[in-house]
Write a structure and sequence with these properties.
- The protein is mainly alpha-helical.
- It has one helix at 22-79, and strands at residues 6-9, 16-19.
- Helices cover 64% and strands 9% of the residues.
- A two-stranded antiparallel sheet has the order 1-2.
Amino acid sequence: MDVDDAKVDESEGWGEIDWLNPEAAKDYLIMPARIRRLEQDVNDVKEGMRLFSEGMMQHMKLIQELRVVVKTLEKVIENIGGKEFKSHSV
């Protein structure tokens, strides 16, 4: 296999790479570290999404509970003589 930056042959053993571009050789050598960083970044994003999801679930539960409170307060106000009070549905 030949490309502009390297060629693979068997001149010094199976799958030996002759690097023609030092920058490409460097990129190849640091690839495992880059992949480890990317894997960590993906894990960090997954954890952030998990925390966001938990927070959103708690938020939705709170909204439902507040709706119940509003309905209860509407009934209390009506019972104490505030018949003209009509809230907008939440």
